[in-house]
Amino acid sequence: MVGAGLRAAARRWLLCGGHGGPRAASSSPSCPGCGPPGPGAHCPGAPRSAPAQAPAGGADLSAHLWARYQDMRRLVHDLLPPEVCSLLNPAAIYANNEISLRDVEVYGFDYDYTLAQYADALHPEIFSAARDILIEHYKSLLMKIDAFHYVQLGTAYRGLQPVPDEEVIELYGGTQHIPLYQMSGFYGKGPSIKQFMDIFSLPEMALLSCVVDYFLGHSLEFDQAHLYKDVTDAIRDVHVKGLMYQWIEQNMEKYILRGDETFAVLSRLVAHGKQLFLITNSPFSFVDKGMRHMVGPDWRQLFDVVIVQADKPSFFTDRRKPFRKLDEKGSLQWDRITRLEKGKIYRQGNLFDFLRLTEWRGPRVLYFGDHLYSDLADLMLRHGWRTGAIIPELEREIRIINTEQYMHSLTWQQALTGLLERMQTYQDAESRQVLAAWMKERQELRCITKALFNAQFGSIFRTFHNPTYFSRRLVRFSDLYMASLSCLLNYRVDFTFYPRRTPLQHEAPLWMDQLCTGCMKTPFLGDMAHIR
């Protein structure tokens, strides 16, 4: 069984028990040209000065290329003063689609990791309990895939050990590409690939890696399909047996974060005349205790409808399951449900009855959840609701993006890539050596930038320059995304979110250095006239 579409891939958990976090990126890269650029920084072999005009060939051409390289470094350094960093706000809301909150009349919420944000301390608990369950009672890779179904080389692991790039390519028939039929399940499950798409997947990925590593280290035979099923069942049992609920209920101060901010968001929406509802897979007793902790004993008065144990995502597609009412003790009642009453608790049901009873339809409904498939996909694609994705990792990633090291590394990487594209028209022996040195430096830069986020897997949003498989789904299934629900407090309830117009490839033919210097020429196009 192959793990794919990693979402939070191995940030703190890759070593057994979650004790081995990502290694810090080296501050002394092997190639001096890979560090933050400065006027004196250069790649090995680069001359300090060179002719400014392109000569006829030979060594003079090589010097000309290195002169362009040095000019580019100085340009990048001058373009990035220290104050250019910290431009992104981790508490901001980011828009994939234009949406005005003025048009939203009804707000819906998932519970776990949406209304209730959990501390990272919960992950080792789940890992340990599932490990114990597994003890009582394979081509097996964990890897990261981009939006075009290509494996990001350097991110494939068997157990806790990295798999050489050559072996990964050989396993997939001489290519990095994963065929569509293996990944095409609507809810993220293909015939041989499972996408890990939410925070709850972290302990499962960690346990799977550790067990595979143990079997391989002790030369034990195993069937990868059986192992995957056993690990998944063990993680499921942690939830089914209520162990996770017990840990959180016993120490809510430790595990539940930002409860006061959740209360502030809900109160503010109600004060502005918005209708609220809750649809969660968690049981009532657990949700009740958590909401009492965050909001107070009268939390149900904030919601027009509360549905527990909804069994998402089948809640959105299965018309057969009726709503059942719960009494104050959480016991099921036998009443036939003809309307959904404020202050009452309902169990299971289905979205079609929900729409019929509430008449909450289309873009005037905005629903927030943390799982792209289980919470958001059906609502956006089948029912036209607006959706908001809660991505807790976003806050940390933005803080890394705001660092001077990341900004300089990425900007120089982009400038160097543009230089490579334009200078590849020089194909004499000396020039090819220069281009090869630049390619090596570019690859090292990419690895450094990746390691800033996570030494094993990098950013959850990027596989080097391409979006990840997760990132593409995030854009497809959510109108808005943010680190936590509390980000709503930074905006008025009639605020309009506008997505940034990001240029398509044919709309932005020039690289950063050409735009910044006002040079609108592309000198290599004449040499590439044969493609017309």
Describe the structure.
It is a single chain. The protein has three domains: 75-90 and 394-482 and 499-531, no CATH class; 105-118 and 255-390, HAD superfamily/HAD-like (Rossmann fold, 3-Layer(aba) Sandwich); 121-249, no CATH class. Helix content is 39%, strand content 11%. It has helices at residues 59-79, 122-136, 165-171, 180-183, 201-217, 224-240, 243-250, 252-255, 259-271, 284-294, 351-358, 372-383, 393-401, 404-423, 429-453, 469-477, 512-516, and strands at residues 2-4, 94-95, 99-100, 106-109, 117-118, 157-158, 161-162, 193-195, 256-257, 275-279, 305-308, 323-326, 345-348, 365-369, 386-390, 462-463, 466-467, 480-482, 496-497. The strands form six sheets. Strands 2-18-15-14-4-10-11-13-12 form a nine-stranded mixed β-sheet, sandwiched between helices. Strands 1-8 form a two-stranded parallel ribbon. The longest helix is centred in the C-terminal third of the chain and has 25 residues, at 429-453.
